[in-house]
Design goal:
The complex is a heterodimer of chains A (about 290) and B (about 270).
Chain A lengths: L5 H6 L5 H26 L3 H21 L3 H22 L4 H21 L8 H6 L7 H20 L1 H9 L1 H6 L4 H42 L3 H26 L3 H19 L23
Helix pairs in contact in A: 2-7, 2-10, 2-11, 3-4, 3-5, 3-10, 4-5, 4-10, 7-10, 10-11, 10-12, 11-12
Chain B lengths: L9 H4 L1 H5 L3 E10 L2 E11 L4 E5 L6 H9 L6 E6 L11 E4 L13 H6 L3 H4 L7 H13 L15 H14 L4 E5 L7 H16 L3 E5 L12 E6 L1 E6 L1 H4 L2 H8 L3 E3 L5 E3 L1
The chains are: A mainly alpha (about 290), B alpha/beta (about 270).
Chain lengths: ~290, ~270
């Protein structure tokens, strides 16, 4: 499909219902992923996020077999996996990294095995695994919007507690915050975010939606609220831009979104004026002698 | 009046303490697994004192601080601050941790971090207001970091980071401050600055406990030293604690006193 003017290029796809819904979903998902993603990046939860995404696969297959909502199945198994990781880490010698690795592969294999027994899987498997943001229905949009508002509301209400937990968990304990409960809550919010974001980029790529926008933001700004804001802007730009690119170039939409986000990250790496970027070379910290005051 | 060496029954000797010591620790016992890390630790501190905790690695210095804060389970014993058992959210006791305990890459300015010291007082759902920000400004002035309020914490030096954490603890408006190795790993001028600030806080009526493995720092600032090696070895004025006898019982090696104030361990 071709277009002549910039306005035409932007407006023409929006004539289609599937593009309208896809864009709206991209907007909502981009914002929620960046807000939760800020915590994911700074608490180093990317691996566990990837695991939760893959763990939702058997949940979807089981939900399909038992004929109840697929997102619910995905969310339930995802949350159970998060709890399982926590139990293994606390009760055994196995480290969290290892526990995640084991359950990651195990749950996904369960999904593959179950699926291989199903003769009439009518849903789009490619879309589930790799995203199909242009197949979103109005019903899905409503679920995304409601869940998104809920997640953002909880983060806003518990903002200072979650920030303190991320920056200094010991201090959070000292002032009496229920640290373990807050951690479980954050994992729960992640699991729900992942389930709604999977519809745009699929299970395999959803970790990029969680991590890349916030990671890019940390290269560009130096205060946490701005990480969420700049991350949201980039997440929306990447998701919307990716959908446009996939529309005109006829390339898989989930992948174009992630490629666009990754390119923005690389751009930030190269161009960022901060000491954290590649152009500055080795990041050196000032030593104590630099600071003799007054 | 400070207790004399070996005399751990403070309340009997000082009526001011008997009524409501700033910090009272009684029969404290903490174990990790089967091995006790702290045994039978009993002492009381009045208000307005800066007390140094010395002892070898593994002596339980950090564990003592964590026990007072309620961060580790007490096998036995009690802790009371200003006459009250400190509930977790009471805000009576503030903690200035070792520097490596924190994620320094976190995007925050100096002012952001000090403002976090107000979170305990605010409770759930409330946002910090102008009064809180005013307190942050005052705390930054107390530690001499008011000109750095807008700087990112990742850019600070070790000594500056230490002072920011101290300001955060002060923003909590506590009665007691517990500092873990705050003068370790910084150069002598920075040590002087921090100790001076701590002494000023003691003069204003706060009670401060500072662990240190550095016996070469300027001991003049301390009102007393507490020597710890799983058990309380001694608590008293600096010159009574930095003696060969006490140091041998604390550190377990032969001690040579080079001059009146500095110590060499052989």
């Amino acid at each position: 499909m071709t277009c002549d003017s910039l306005w035409n290029c932007l407006a023409a796809p929006l004539a289609f219902g599937f593009m309208q819904r896809g864009m709206l979903a991209a907007l909502l998902i981009g914002i929620v992923c960046a807000v939760i993603g800020a915590f994911v990046v700074l608490q180093e939860l990317a691996f566990i996020g990837d695991a939760l995404a893959h763990a939702s696969f058997p949940g979807v297959v089981i939900a399909f077999l038992l004929k109840f909502p697929l997102e619910l199945g995905g969310a339930i198994v995802g949350i159970l996996t998060a709890l399982g990781i926590g139990v293994i880490t606390r009760r055994t010698r196995v480290s969290q990294d290892t526990a995640i690795g084991v359950l990651f592969a195990g749950t996904f294999a369960l999904g593959v095995a179950l699926l291989s027994t199903v003769k009439n899987y009518t849903k789009d498997l490619f879309g589930l695994l790799l995203g199909d943001g242009l197949a979103i229905q109005s019903r899905d949009l409503i679920v995304i919007a409601v869940m998104g508002v809920l997640i953002l509301g909880i983060v806003f209400a518990l903002y200072k507690e979650l920030v303190l937990l991320t920056f200094d968990p010991v201090q959070a304990e000292v002032i009496g915050l229920p640290v373990n409960l807050l951690r479980e809550l954050l994992l729960g919010l992640m699991a729900v975010t992942i389930v709604i974001a999977i519809q745009t980029v699929g299970i395999v790529l959803v970790v990029a939606m969680l991590v890349t926008p916030a990671a890019t933001a940390t290269l560009l700004v130096r205060r946490f609220p701005l990480v969420m804001l700049v991350g949201a802007i980039q997440g929306v730009a990447g998701a919307v831009g990716g959908l446009y690119l996939s529309f005109y170039l006829n390339v898989a939409s989930g992948a174009t979104i992630v490629l666009l986000l990754t390119s923005m990250f690389v751009l930030a790496l190269i161009l960022s004026p901060r000491p954290g970027s590649i152009l500055w070379g080795r990041h050196s910290r000032p030593n104590a002698l630099d600071t003799v005051p007054r | 009046m400070m207790i004399t060496l070996h005399d751990t029954s403070w309340a009997a000797t000082d009526p001011a303490i008997a009524t409501a010591p700033a910090l009272l620790v009684r029969d404290l016992r903490v174990s990790y697994g089967a091995q006790p890390v702290l045994e039978d630790v009993t002492f009381a501190l009045p208000v307005g004192k800066l007390v140094g905790i010395i002892g070898p690695n593994g002596a339980g210095k950090t564990t003592l601080l964590k026990a007072i804060l309620g961060l580790v389970a007490l096998e036995r014993g009690t802790v009371a601050v200003a006459g009250r058992r400190p509930a977790r959210r009471s805000g009576l006791v503030a903690y200035v941790p070792q520097r490596d305990a924190v994620n320094w890459r976190f995007p925050a300015t100096v002012a952001d971090v000090v403002l976090m010291g107000r979170y305990g007082r605010l409770g759930w759902l409330r946002r910090p207001g102008t009064a809180d920000r005013a307190i942050v400004g005052r705390c930054l002035e107390q530690v001499g970091m008011q000109n750095h309020a807008g700087r990112a914490i990742a850019e600070l030096s070790g000594g500056q980071q230490q002072r920011v954490f101290l300001a955060r603890a002060l923003a909590q408006e506590p009665e007691v401050l517990l500092l873990d190795e705050s003068i370790s790993g910084v150069d002598a001028p920075t040590q002087e600055t921090i100790l001076r600030i701590l002494a000023e806080l003691a003069a204003q009526g706060k009670t401060l406990l500072l662990t240190t493995h550095d016996l070469h720092c300027n001991m003049e600032y301390f009102d007393a030293l507490l020597a710890l090696n799983r058990q309380l070895v001694a608590l008293g004025p600096v010159e009574r604690v930095l003696t060969p006898d006490v140091l041998t019982r604390t550190y377990g090696t032969q001690i040579v006193l080079a001059d009146g104030t500095s110590v060499a361990l052989t």
